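A.,

Following up on our hallway conversation. Structure tokens first:
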């Protein structure tokens, strides 16, 4: 027994507003190949803040995508794998020639496990996209920390991150992506004075 439903998506007006795309990389030498959320080095992955340039109370859809460069140009290296028929697709045995398993984590305010709002599964595909329906009239402006990461740490790969917000009429609203150079954690310092 199957149930089908239809969702009406508004026409996208390409002429209004822009999405934004930014180039980045997971790079072990620069310390930005932190790996997945199951590793203590997760926050070493590149971090980005995504928000609207100008707030307008509306409903809409936020799309955030990580795209990897085209890996087909490296396909001739597949001949270096001794028994290609036995290869399980892991990134430790030739997977660097294809796409590393990667995912997107969207966090509210700070990049911590308890602040993850939505995330994708790890996948060895070129593009990974998160779509979020947001009600800015009810919840106000959004500001998310985006953590694109690979499943394993020390994986080297370039990527592009892009963000787009479409209002309820399908019009694009300007989004900005700001790289966060470093997350230093919470400022939980306190001074205590007194006598014993």
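Then the amino acids I'd put at each of the 196 positions:
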């Amino acid at each position: 027994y199957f149930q089908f439903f239809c969702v009406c998506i508004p026409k996208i007006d390409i002429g209004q507003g822009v999405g934004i795309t930014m180039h980045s990389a997971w790079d072990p030498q620069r310390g930005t190949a932190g790996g997945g959320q199951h590793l203590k080095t997760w926050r070493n992955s590149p971090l980005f803040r995504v928000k609207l340039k100008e707030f307008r109370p509306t409903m809409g859809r936020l799309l955030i995508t990580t795209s990897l460069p085209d890996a087909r140009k490296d396909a001739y290296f597949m001949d270096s794998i001794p028994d290609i028929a036995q290869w399980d697709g892991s990134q430790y045995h030739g997977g660097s020639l294809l796409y590393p398993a990667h995912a997107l984590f969207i966090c509210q305010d700070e990049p911590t496990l308890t602040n993850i709002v939505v995330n994708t599964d790890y996948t060895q595909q070129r593009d990974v996209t998160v779509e979020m329906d947001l009600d800015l009239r009810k919840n106000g402006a959004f500001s998310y920390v985006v953590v694109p990461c690979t499943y394993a740490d020390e994986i080297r790969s370039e990527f592009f991150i892009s963000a787009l917000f479409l209002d309820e009429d399908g019009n694009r609203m300007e989004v900005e992506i700001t790289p966060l150079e470093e997350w230093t954690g919470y400022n939980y310092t306190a001074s205590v004075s007194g006598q014993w």
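The CA atoms of residues 89 and 95 lie 6 Å apart. Curious whether your intuition agrees with the design.

B.
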